[in-house]
Amino acid sequence: MCDKLFSMKKKRTEPLRPEQNTMPVQATAHEGDGDLFNAPQHVVDLLNGGSEQDTKFDQDLRAELRIWVDDWLRSGPNTRFMLGSLDPDRLQKLLTKNYCLLVATNGGRMLAQPFFAFESSTPDEIALATFRQFVTHSDCELLSGPCATCRKYFITKTRRAGTKYCSRKCGSDLIAKTAIGLRNKELHDELLALAKEALSQYVEERPVATSWQEWVLAHLRGKGHTRTEKSLSHWINDEKAEPGTGLKLPPEIEALQQAKSVRVTFKFANKKGEEKN
After folding, report:
1. Prior bond of 77 cis (ω within 30°)
2. Of 254, 248, 39, which is closest to residue 132 (Cα–Cα)?
3. Which residues of 19-51 are buried (b: 16+ CB within 10 A; e: fewer)?
4. How confident is the model at residue 21 (pLDDT cuts 50, 70, 90)?
5. Do 241 and 248 touch, CB atoms closer than 8 A?
6. Using an 8 Å Cβ cutoff, are 49 and 25 in contact?
7. Phi/psi class of residue 24: alpha, beta or left (left: φ > 0; alpha: ψ in -120 to 50)?
């Protein structure tokens, strides 16, 4: 049951409480063109209001409403383009005429609910009725989203197209993350280049007393980068998973690795045999 479907900004007028099978969402009054509630904000609250306490009914309603809103946003928004992109079944659902429910209050007004409030309503029906109320509202074009950073829907102050962020903070956060990601990639590329350079030197020098891992790590330290053998293993695994993204060992070092692996396996097998004897 919804505690309050609407709260008027100037004079609070609460509807009587009909039994409903819908999410407890509160919509605020809209001032300006006579609409009884702020449908865009109501839709934003529904789309952003998920929680662990949601029932399957709530989840299905929110998912269906998101499909309608995302189709609308992708169209421009341009309802002519949107109608042209919908499959026949969804197009027929959207354009089928229907009525809102008038709810009596304790004052002189009656409130129009944005969806049907009776037990037989399905999540899809409520989502569609809510979307109808939304697209007929004078401020529907103020809705935007999802935010490129937090993935929430939001209301803009103007009808300026292309707003990607719900706030300056989200915009700044994404720019900062992008910059950090770019710096990390540049550092990663530099380290791989130095490691490949060290491997080439190791193959030419062929030092007996130093492993290739020690050689590469010493070369990196000489260039001001401190890494461990674990980093080398990660780079080698990256290359195996996606060639060109990590560190590929030269054939000479691969051969040394395989020979070492055979020796270790042989030694382990001999030790096991001695224990049995």
Report:
1. yes
2. 39
3. ebbbbebebebbeeeebbbbbbbbbbbbbbeee
4. very low
5. no
6. yes
7. beta
Closest C-alpha among 30, 31, 47 to residue 39: 30
Residue type, 150: C
Considering only CA atoms, which of 28, 30, 27, 29 is closest in space to residue 46? 27
Residue 249's region, left for phi above 0, alpha for psi from -120 to 50, else beta, is beta
Q: Is 113 helix (H, G, I), strand (E, B) or coil?
A: strand
Which DSSP string corresponds to 232-269? HHHHHHHHHHSTTSS-PPPHHHHHHHHHHHHHHHHHHH
Per the DSSP assignment, residues forming a β-bridge with 155 are 143
CB 39 within 8 A of CB 133: yes
Sign of the dihedral defined by the CA atoms of residues 122, 125, 128, 134, in that order: negative
pLDDT digits 0-9 by tens, 219-259: 899 989 888 889 888 888 888 888 888 888 888 887 776 65
Q: Could you give the CA distance from residue 83 to residue 66 in angstroms, rounded to a whole number?
A: 16
CA–CA distance, 170 with 165 (Å, rounded to integer): 6
